[in-house]
Amino acid sequence: MLSCKELVAHSSDYLDGQLNLRERLGVRAHLAMCRHCRRFIRQMKVTQGVLRKLPDAAIPELDALAERLAEQRNKSRGD
Predict the structure, then answer these.
(1) How many folded domains does the chain comprise?
(2) What is the pLDDT confidence band of residue 79, given thresholds at 50, 70 and 90?
(3) Is 73 within a domain?
(4) pLDDT at position 35, please?
(5) Which stretches of 34-59 are DSSP H helices?
(6) Does residue 69 lie in a domain region?
(7) Distance between CA atoms of 74 and 64, rounded to whole angstroms?
(8) Which domain holds residue 3?
(9) Residue 20, SS3?
(10) Contact, 44 vs 74, CB < 8 A?
């Protein structure tokens, strides 16, 4: 079973539907047992909802930063 720290590390990918079946099952098993992480995931969903309602302002610097961060995350995960 995942630790709370591992769940937090996977939380964005979980909410975005980017985990494989095994990882999703691990997250769900942990959430079934841990009320603190359930609260954390609920708050993440609220945050995502608020962010999605913000206007889309094209800022090239932010897009470039997001791409670099995604590349670094993928490298650190071994993808």
Answers:
(1) 1
(2) low
(3) no
(4) 98
(5) 35-53
(6) no
(7) 15
(8) 1-56
(9) coil
(10) no
- Percent of the chain topping pLDDT 70: 95
DSSP state of 38: H
Task: State the sign of the Cα–Cα–Cα–Cα dihedral 65, 39, 42, 1.
Answer: positive
Tell me if 74 is assigned to some domain. Answer: no
**CA distances from residue 68 to 11, 51, 58, 62, 75 in whole angstroms, order as listed:** 20, 20, 17, 10, 11
Amino acid at 78: G
Residue type, 70: A
Mean pLDDT of 10-22: 95
Query: Is there a domain that residue 68 lies in?
Result: no
| pLDDT tens figures, 39-71 | 999 999 999 998 888 777 767 788 888 889 999
> What residue has token string 């990918």?
13
Q: Please write down the long-range contacts of 33-38, taking CB distance under 8 Å and 24 or more positions apart.
A: 33/1, 34/4, 34/7, 36/4, 37/4, 37/7, 37/8
pTM over the 0.70 mark: no
